[in-house]
Amino acid sequence: MVSPHDLYHSRGLSGADDSIAPPQDAGIVEIEHHYVIERSLTALQSLENLVITLDSDAPFRLLQRVRTSTGAFRFRMTNTEGAWMHSSGRNSGSSTEKIRDANFFGTAQLPGLFLAPMLFKPGGIIKYDLEDVSNATNAIQIVFSGVKLYQR
Fold first, then answer.
1. CA distance 133 to 124
2. d(CA 107, CA 85)
3. pLDDT digits (tens, 9 = 90+) for 40-74
4. DSSP conformation letters of 52-95
5. CB 23 within 8 A of CB 86
6. Rounded to 5 degrees, what are φ and ψ at 40?
7. DSSP string spanning 25-50?
8. Alpha-carbon gap, residue 138 to 134, rounded angstroms
9. Percent residues over pLDDT 70 in the chain
10. Among 44, 59, 81, 129, which has the highest number of CB atoms less than 10 A from its own CB?
């Protein structure tokens, strides 16, 4: 069986408008980086077309995601082109359904890993939708973790 570490260092994503091919140069330095989303939803509230604008100083390789919340919610994310991205880190094809949080995110103890890392160019964006399904006020924190890729 291939470990997640081996997957991350042997595979990459290319083709999406806001993604880039992984650098093949040994002169790349990877620096750990996190993007944090904090939202509070009212009962059954849905927020769509929310955006995270990535830093413009280096490409970002998204490796994993975790969440905490006070209730259940559904989630989906897209790249700049509007292609739905799910746990594979690739376009999910025709599926546009939001995914229940427990089926998409991991926890701090067991992070949700992408099967293939998602690579974004500097200043790229991640679009996402949130929908409460707990029928109560819901405080949500989502953390997208990965590495920034700097030239030596």
1. 29
2. 19
3. 999 999 999 999 999 999 999 999 989 999 999 99
4. EEPPSSS-EEEEEEEEEESS-EEEEEE-TT--EE-TTSSB-TT-
5. no
6. -120, 125
7. -TTEEEEEEEEEEEEEE-TT-EEEEE
8. 7
9. 72
10. 59
Strand partners, 63: none
Please write the tens of the pLDDT for every residue from 76-86.
Answer: 888 666 666 65
Tell me: pLDDT of 151 over 60.
yes
- The amino acid that residue 65 corresponds to is R
DSSP lists the bridge partners of residue 94 as none
Tell me, what amino acid is at 132? D
The residues near 53 (Cβ < 8 Å, ≥ 6 apart) are 123, 125
Residue 151: phi and psi, rounded to 5, are: -75, 140
* Residue 69 CB-density burial (10 A; 0-12 exposed, 13-18 middle, 19+ buried): buried
**Domains identified in the chain and CATH numbers:** 4-151 (2.60.120)
